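Changelog-linked ticket: nicotinamide-adenine-dinucleotide example.
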Amino acid sequence: MRSVVTGAAGFVGSHLSEHLLARGDEVVGIDCFTDYYDTAIKERNLAPALADERFTLVRGDLLTEPLIELFDGADVVYHLAGQPGVRPSWGSDFSTYVSHNVLATQAVLEAARTVELKKLVYASSSSVYGDAESYPTSERVRPQPISPYGVTKLAAEHLCELYRTAFGVPTASLRFFTVYGPRQRPDMAFSRLVAAGLEGSVFELYGTGEQTRDFTYVGDIVRALHDAATSDFVGVANIGGGSRTSMNEVVEIVSDLAGEPDVRRLAKVRGDVKDTAADTQVARDGFGYAPQVSLRDGLALMVEAARSTGGGGAATASGTGSAT
Ligand code: NAD
Ligand code: UGA
């Protein structure tokens, strides 16, 4: 198989690239190393893939690279590049979200319609649901994002569906539910919490801590991406971790595994949903998806990785949002 991974230097993209290489794929990674967080982290993320001669890195922006040329001859394009982060997507930063999430996806789809792909898999997000009408949430529930980020992820997902129905591009959009594991982005809760636990330093908890998430281990996400790509599945599917846990419960588990962080409670941040929980029946029926890693086991793997690299790796991201 020949695969293209956009966003290959990121948290999920670097894990996916390694997984595909381990399976014997040839992988072309595309990434423009945005400054959403320290690019030195992205360089480190990519080091294992770069050591494999079947991996080629294209350092460039999807909006300017010759995508038709890069996609030509590929079996699958995994489109993971994007501007992540729910909380910083308000205000003047919104144009960055539109560019990296909507315009870049449209460019990917335009190129995809002129080449013969077996599958184009898009990294969509649970943030499209907003505060959902029902839990666990199925794909039939009406998406109502409550963050500008969620709006751009939903727009890109609609574009995938549109190019599928209008031009027959075989798209699969996977709605990831809060992904965690080693290399998690430094603006996300677990990477900060693990670092704070190991160092006994401050963890800023937004809101009451009663908010719940269907946290999903990155290894389960990577398997889902591959299995969706190699199945007949097209359309939209939730990918969750199989349990719903509050941030207060997560703080307890991390205290147990890593040490006690100094938790400071701040106000809830605008754009944060109260709860997420995935109904994963569509993914189960479509490509046999079942999460394999429990939250406690996944967190233990994160703590172990952070210990072996000498910390949580939770550097400050450029736009982490402020409490409102
Ligand atoms: P990440 O920021 O670590 O990785 C995204 C990568 O895309 C970065 O390395 C960035 O440099 C690159 N990129 C952005 N715009 C680009 C462009 N125009 N051209 C080339 N490269 C570009 O983020 P992540 O956490 O690995 O998330 C990957 C994808 O999954 C994103 O699309 C995100 O919206 C989606 N997602 C993530 C989560 C999660 O919990 N991490 C949940 C739901 C959806
Ligand atoms: C995550 C990703 O960051 C998004 O890219 C993704 O699209 C989204 O999941 C998704 O599932 O679609 P989020 O759920 O906010 O978003 O993930 P975290 O950043 O890990 O936050 C989890 C919870 O911890 C949130 O309630 C957040 O407010 C809280 N948090 C986060 C803190 O209390 N303190 C922090 O320093 C960071």
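Closing comment: Example verified and attached. Confidence is low (pLDDT under 50) at residues 312-324. The pocket of uridine-5'-diphosphate-glucuronic acid (ligand 2) is lined by residues 84-86, 125-127, 176-178, 188-190, 192, 204-206, 211, 213, 247, 269, 272 (CB under 6 Å).
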